[in-house]
């Protein structure tokens, strides 16, 4: 009986190919939009989580920020940074200092404390140049607090800091820019006109990962790492503000301090201590800086929790928007089935007259709507899986298509067809056989 009903339903749908195809289109687009939107949303959120995770789940990062009183157009009553004025120039001092570094290093729950000084300037090798390269003066522990590995050569050593050696480690993009296919190890480069020897090349990293004071989207593959002591001795802490002829300078000793937290007592998960340690750092710096907001404490664990929460909300919003498309497809199925009931009134009367029961009529129309929605679901799944692949290939955006999203979209498609097919099926089964046979 079920096989006969299925065959009859398929034949009836085939008799009206154009109408069935247009009805399928609504379901196809609904299912495809659910899968595509969830995949793109999941990919973007996963990418954001990866960026945060790359900063180190067990790290507390403190960054220098420009005080509000020094920003262009700021209110003159805002807190001003420390200022040193002479007859020839003016120096605005703000941000993290070596005193802050020593205080943070004295905290009992830290494992590694890594300072970073960031400068920008030209890096050149013969005719190859990077005009505004990012120069990171740091310590050997920097590598341990970041997800990064050396591809060739070595990273900085304690002896490099002690001797204030003119050595540099190039990120993968910087090495390719300056040396092409040549081996950069033990070769000389000019950093702001000073000669440095290349001792290592880092492995490529995700270009979307922000490191060491970079803004979101900055490319860390073009960083140049040098010993902190060398950078402080050669480049100093003062940078001219504005044009070359300006007499105003800003003074920043350290742009970033990363505190790696370790487990205490019987704990095995050091991430449990991250938030308490971050609160200790906030309290410490607030006292040292007298309430001046020239630093920012970044806690990747907190950012990850916030990003995960926003991800769940965003997925619900996307699913709701895409679900509207499925609802429209369901309304289309109900509309076509109501029209089908009207057209096949005489057929229904004949079937009832020769002994068909109400449940047989209901089964016939429900099978038709189920077949229609299932076909639309299958085609929608194919299109929905193809769209994220195309987005990744042509737009370069990360997408993640999960089996759960596919099953959810297909299941909702079939369920929508059944729900919206109940009323037309019940209406067909409720017809009086005598009244139905009178229809021409």
TrEMBL record:
What range(s) does the MacB-like periplasmic core domain occupy?
A: 20-235
InterPro entries named in the record: ABC3_permease_C, MacB_PCD, Macrolide_Exporter_MacB
Localization recorded for this chain is: Cell membrane
What EC designation does it have?
A: 3.6.3.-
Keyword match Cytoplasm? no
Annotated membrane-spanning segments are 21-41, 313-340, 361-394, 400-423
As for membrane topology, the entry says: Multi-pass membrane protein
- One MF term in GO for this entry? transmembrane transporter activity
Keywords annotated in UniProt: ATP-binding, Cell membrane, Hydrolase, Membrane, Nucleotide-binding, Transmembrane, Transmembrane helix
| Pfam families named among the record's database cross-references | FtsX (PF02687), MacB_PCD (PF12704)
The record's GO CC annotations read: plasma membrane
Question: Which residues does the UniProt record annotate as the domain ABC3 transporter permease C-terminal?
Answer: 320-433
Family recorded in the similarity comment: Belongs to the ABC-4 integral membrane protein family.
State what protein this is by name.
Macrolide export ATP-binding/permease protein MacB
According to the entry, what is the taxonomic lineage of the organism?
Bacteria, Pseudomonadati, Planctomycetota, Planctomycetia, Pirellulales
